[in-house]
Structure formats: C-alpha cells, structure tokens
Design a protein that fits this description.
This protein is an alpha/beta fold and 296 residues long. The protein has a single domain, classed as P-loop containing nucleotide triphosphate hydrolases (Rossmann fold, 3-Layer(aba) Sandwich), CATH 3.40.50.300. It contains 10 helices and 12 strands. The strands form 2 sheets. Strands 1-12-11-10-5-9-6-8-7-3 form a 10-stranded mixed β-sheet, with helices on both faces. A two-stranded antiparallel ribbon has the order 2-4. Helix 3 packs across helix 4.
Length: 296
Amino acid sequence: MNSIEKALQKKNQQVSEQPQKESSVTANNANDLKESSVESPSVVVPPPPSGNKVNIEIDFQSLEAKGFVSTNSQRQLINEEYRAIKRKLLDNAFGPLSKSLKNGNIIMVSSSRPGEGKTFTAINLALSIALEQDKTVLLVDADVLKPNVMRTLEQKNTVGLMEYLLGEKDNISDVMCTTNLDNLRIIPAGKSHHLSTELLASEKMQEAMQEFATRYPDRVVIVDTPPLLGINETAILANLAGQALVVVEESKTKLADVSKAVEQLNPEMAIGFVVNKSEKANSDGAGYGYYYAGAN
C-alpha cells in the first residue's frame, strides 16, 4: 500500500459516517495518442468591464512541450487524465452534491510542502476545464508569498490580487486578465506585502470569493494556494473554498505530512488527492502519471 492509499484509508476512517462524495479514478501519463480531440474551446464569453485589463497571450505550444494539457486538436493522455480528475470536481460543483457544499465551484489546489507540483496541477486543471463547452474558468494565484502561476506561464508579473485587497484597484475586474483561450481568465498574485495574512482574511477577500462563487453560474474558480503546512494564509483560504485538491508527490511526500495537511482543511469541504509523478506501468511498460481519489 503506497503513501496516498494509506492517507486515504486514514481519512476515510475519520469520515466513515459522512456520505461518499467521490470515487477513485486512476490515470497514467504517457506519449501522445494520435486521435482528434473530443473537446474544443467554448464560445467566447464577454469579459466583465474594466479599464485596466491586461490581455495575456499564452504560448500553448511551449506549455504542451513541457507536459501541460494540450489545447489543440491533438489528443494526449495527460488530457485524458485531467478529464478524469475534473469530472469528479465538476460533479461536486454542479451536480446533486453541490447543494451540500458551500462554494463548491471554488477549488483550492495545494500541497503539504513546497515543490510537489501544485501550480502545475492548478494550471492543468484550469486548462482542461476551459476546454469544456459550457464552463468558464478563473485561475487565481493566491500564493502571495511565492507566486508561480505567471512565471510558469512565461508571463511578466503584473498587478493582481494584492493590489485589489490593498485598495489600489477599485474592482476585482481591474486585476482580472483575459487570455487567448476564450474561457480562461487569470488573476495574478500581484506584489508581495507584509500583511498578506491579514489581507487574505479580510472581509474584502471574503466578498471577492463570494462574488466568484455566485456571479457566473457556469464559472469554476481554481485557486493556487500556498502549501498547507506552516503557512497561515492557506488555512484561511480553506474556509472560503468548497473543494480542495491536495497534490502529493509519489515516493517523496511523507504520510505524516499528508495527514497534517488534511487537518488544516475545512472538514465540510470535499477533499481529493492527486499523486504527481506517479510511476505506473503503461502499455509500453514505463511512464509517469497521476492518481486522483476523493477522500470525502
């Protein structure tokens, strides 16, 4: 039994009296599959009005070469993996179970420690959901201590969440960037600030998250948060999201860290795990992939 299975077993024992919200799905990452995609970018949704919007041109070809979800017509196995992962999350956000989750369409992506692949997972999840025909995605970089979303996308740092919380921007739409993927919007972290914990715990942040959750009925909000252990900001954000996706690195993340990380989360939220860099044999006998399972 590997580390994540042990963590899931322990978590399931803790929530044995709660209804199961998700089931297990396994997937492997390998070479491209030579088939046409069953998904395509959805119809352009007019962005909210803003006088300071920054349009981001993402180099999707470069991202694909680095192992990210492909947005073109070529079907890849990593796309299949994230289809399996996102289905569980979308079912929680918009299916029958959504009535039992507060802000179920807000999904925080975190890890127990740095370097386990949470930003990689958050971006891939956002790209995959943006390819849905009837969903829009807002990717928020809330790791204000060590922002990585814009850098991973090879974009310059720009005004973002912190400028809005500090009152330097009047509207949240002023820091919401459009992209060249019709259904994807991004809010960068913005500048660092010594009162980041207090700002993320502020009423203004709560109001922004509530607006994210309710303003657009088709919107999914992916929040890249700091690691769960040793960072006060993450526990605060956990109270604002309805779902949590905890990224675990195969053969590296300690079981004790996974257990402690889960303890930092709101027990009323839906919690799932993604095992990153999981060594699973594909048809050719080798490869890296992902394992997703719902804990409660």
